[in-house]
Amino acid sequence: MKHLFMVFFLFFIGFTMNGQKNITFINQQVENLEIQLVKKGEHLKLTTLQLEELSKIFNEKFERVQTVLAKYSVKSEVSKEMTKIEDEFTPKVESILTFNQRLALHNERKKPVKSSLE
């Protein structure tokens, strides 16, 4: 937990008010990834080095998202571009993960959704 705080603190120092949105975005992305991994076991937690690399990737992703949001106003166009960004950045994120982390992540994403009618 200390390494997570340190990474986020360093990002906080480097950014202005607009950077606050960036930090929030990065924190959410890292937290979502960590939650998905830890569901499969504590041994799959992200390392400090992985957090640093992922923060750089998510920073780049944030900039791309901001560009799309500024450029497009039609919801369907925004959705299409966001899907492209997700498709582009997923392999970058996965390249930072270990084999076991990637496997756990893929298994988590492929879980069938349970119907509320069952």
Please give a structural write-up.
Helix 1 runs antiparallel to helix 2, helix 2 crosses helix 3 (48-71) and helix 3 (48-71) packs antiparallel against helix 4. Helices cover 78% and strands 0% of the residues. With 118 residues, the chain is mostly helical. The termini are far apart. The model is unreliable at 13-17 (pLDDT under 50). The radius of gyration is 16 Å and the shape is globular. The longest helix has 24 residues, at 48-71. The protein has helices at 2-14, 17-38, 48-71, 75-96, 99-109. It has one domain.
Helices and strands, with pairings:
Layout (H helix, E strand, L loop, with lengths): L1 H13 L2 H22 L9 H24 L3 H22 L2 H11 L9
Helix pairs in contact: 1-2, 2-3, 3-4
Kindly list the characteristics that best describe this protein.
single chain, 118 residues, mainly alpha, 5 helices, 78% helix
- Biggest sheet record: none
- SSE pattern, N- to C-terminal: HHHHH
Helix content: over 70%
CA-CA gap between termini: 38 Å
Helices, by number, come to 5
Number of strand elements:
0
Arithmetic mean pLDDT: 82
Judging from the principal axes of the Cα atoms, what is the shape?
Answer: globular
Strand content: under 5%
As for the number of domains, it is: 1
Low-confidence stretches: 13-17
Structural class: mainly alpha
Radius of gyration: 16 Å
